[in-house]
Amino acid sequence: MNCPICSKWQDDPDQRVVELKHTLVSLNRDQFFAGYCFVYTRNHVTELFHLSEQVRNGVMAEVTAVAQALHSVFSPDKINYELLGNMAPHMHWHIVPRRSKDPLWPRPQWSEPHQEVVLKPEEYRERAALIKAQLKNILG
């Protein structure tokens, strides 16, 4: 299987945030929306109903904790959550901190093209460390 989400953790080491019980968390390469993260299941699965209730609840608790951490670190006006999987059929959420002053507000983040913001490797690592530290506070 050639799944870009299954290999994301290995392919993008500078963008890694944290390994949680049910999910992995990575920064999106494009940081136009500061803090934009992916939360993806450790195992290749495509649908929520493929998970047991216990695992599904655990996954959703981790998605929620990541959103809370992003809110604490970046102070956005709103957090956007996207779970599509049409292009990459592996369960993954786009967790996107949004500001009412961003040029695409209030439209979805991919409603029109924008100039990508690509950070230096050390900037990804610094941003990831801030999010990871906040997640540790939230999850204990």
UniProtKB/TrEMBL annotation:
Domain of life: Bacteria
Keywords linked to the UniProt accession: Hydrolase
SUPFAM superfamilies tied to this protein: HIT-like
Domain called HIT: residue spans: 1-105
GO biological process: nucleotide metabolic process
A Pfam short name: HIT
Leader sequence segment: none
Locus of motif Histidine triad motif: 90-94
Single GO MF descriptor: hydrolase activity
Matching PANTHER family: ADENOSINE 5'-MONOPHOSPHORAMIDASE HNT1 (PTHR46648:SF1), HIT FAMILY PROTEIN 1 (PTHR46648)
UniProt protein name: Histidine triad (HIT) family hydrolase
